[in-house]
Design a protein that fits this description.
With about 60 residues, the chain is mainly α. Helices cover about 45% and strands about 0% of the residues. The two termini are about 20 Å apart.
Length: about 60
């Protein structure tokens, strides 16, 4: 991951990575909607604290 950032000229300390859920579901499956909703307020608070200039959504779950 660090190499990907470095390749495009972004320092790793300039990036904050968050996840919709705070623990992976069994067998590393995608979280179900109720699991994501249970963690949504935590994620919202992370965004408020970090105040990102840009938010990039990756993978199916985040969209």
């Amino acid at each position: 991951m660090d190499l990907a950032f470095q390749t495009v000229g972004i320092k790793r300390n300039e990036v904050y990575i968050a996840n919709i859920v705070k623990c992976r579901p069994p067998a590393n499956r995608n979280p179900e909607q109720d699991e994501a909703m249970a963690c949504l307020n935590y994620l919202r608070n992370q965004v408020l604290l970090v105040k990102p200039e840009i938010i990039v959504l990756l993978r199916k779950c985040s969209t």
